[in-house]
Request: fold
Amino acid sequence: MDSLLVKKFGGTSVGSVERIERVADRLKKSFEAGERFVVVSSAMSGETNRLVGLAHEVSSKARGGEAYDLLLASGEQVSISLLALALEKKGLRARPMLAFQLGIKTDSIYSKARIQNIETDQLHEMLKEGIIPIVAGFQGIDNFDRITTLGRGGSDTTAVALAAALKADACEIFTDVEGVFSADPRVEPKAKKIEQLNYEEMMEMASLGSKVLHFRCVEIAAKYQTPIHVRSTFSELEGTWIKKQENQMEAPVVSSVTHDPRITVLSAEPVPVGLGLLADLFEELSKEEVLVDIISQAQGSQGQRLAFSIADEDADRGIAILKKLFSSSVEITQVPEVAKISIVGVGMKSHPGVAARFFKVLKELNVDLKLVTTSDIKMSGVISREFIDDSVKALHAEFGLS
Reply:
């Protein structure tokens, strides 16, 4: 068999019948060139949001649960069926498949399910017969035969997990941009496309606000050494390759500037000294699937102060947990209108002075840094949302990324 690929198409790629026809043309061209592949599709652009809206019309607190996940999973059923019809019209054999038909097994955590196993025998048989499998992304099935959804970036996760299970040569992620850029082009027009990134860099970028790929799919790719090619549905140009890179002696100090405006900071003061209550707090946050990013513990005006950043959508749950665990004497506050800005690059491991340059840029912009964290290949700070665009442009210029 020729090269084996998994090709994933996002919501904008299949956002209309016309675009689905264009995707079918592209797939036919690839098939006739000798490629063999499994296709994964998201729901049509805007469809998942529409379904969420319908759920909230019925129940304003609807989030997760058997009925909720079953509703959201219906969006992909439409797109894979239309794409299969478009391929069949062009003379190709295609078969749309939902999670339960294929055997994408997950745990039972609704709306944030994790893939545990994928049956591949059916896919291999279909490929041998010249049939193109069109798999619904974003969904799985638990041990009780109930539909689950994988959460944000779920279709990417489906695609990379399939590529790993099939031992495919690569997973192509087709989207509405030409690859991964050194900054968000909507904020910094001088941002340039990055030709190659290693898994470590892409995982950091994904976790820090880059919207091109979700952290979970890159994590799977790194674990199974599955190359990812991020490229445009609307162009034949090469995109960005994410894969293992052996020799990185000449890696740039900073590869990208990323930002995430969807965060909030919660603080509590004064909190009891010691690790007991902190252990309980972060265990509760973990049980509620609240991902904590930057954590700061310092001596404040009233005593020990704890602050941490989480996603905007988790703010209410975070506050509820703080109020549950801490006494009424502890002041709990939410810092509004903040954003996270980060620099990422494997070259930071071997170049001193990166932190000094990061702080210098923010100082020159008179930006107040509320929280900060570092690792070998990244540095992040929480700043007021109003300064995010200027800070992105200034850091992009400082590290020569234009």
